[in-house]
Design goal:
This protein is α+β, with helices and mostly antiparallel strands. The chain has one domain. It has 4 helices and 13 strands. Strands 1, 2, 5, 6, 8 and 11 form a 6-stranded mixed β-sheet that branches. Strands 4-3-7-13-12 form a 5-stranded antiparallel β-sheet, with no helix packed on it. A two-stranded antiparallel sheet has the order 9-10. α1 runs antiparallel to α2. The radius of gyration is 18 Å and the shape is globular. The relative contact order is 0.20. InterPro entries: DUF1007. Keywords: Signal. This is DUF1007 family protein.
Amino acid sequence: MRLTRYLRAGGWKGAALLLLGMLSANVSAHPHGWIDLSVRVMTDEQGRVEGLRQTWRMDPFYSLVVLEELQQVEGESLDVALDQLGHEIRDNLANQGYFTEVYLNDERQGLGEVTDYTVMERDGRVSFMFILPLQTPQLLTGGILRYQVFDPSYYLEVVHEADQGEPLESALVLSSEQECRLDILPADPDPERVMKAAMLDVDEQATPGLGRHFAETGEVACP
């Protein structure tokens, strides 16, 4: 998904054009935007997984462009503009499965509709927070839950929150006190795919599904 698809055609069209202009002047390969991800696996009292609470922190450059444009929208406060942006983001992501795939014991899980979400600004970064429910809660005990969050076109790169290349403990947490092992597994793309991604220009469309090969995998294993 292009970054500009997050911006509505009216009050935010200027931000879209500015963003594309600056990107085309400085970037010549995929990805063109970055998201820092943190996930809380939500469980109920029976130990069933109900969904994933995700926080996406947009990269500083994208955040700056969006915030500057939103502050220029006449007749709306920044909070109101951010709320509207959150609605646009949610609607766009709904058409693409919220960029998220979830598996339990290698069986893909159906996803529900996102109704709990918000957008806010913190320390100059725009954050989109939402709860992505499973269609049917699943018992986690004795199983392995895996998820990936990625833009299929690899226009955006999604990586877990990290410090000096190492994922933070807060990047993947479990809401219950179950004895589970939590891991964030790095992507291991084929060198040929890395080269192809590096050669894509800002206006080129990546092969559908390219982003999957660059996606980290969150894993929750509960004995």
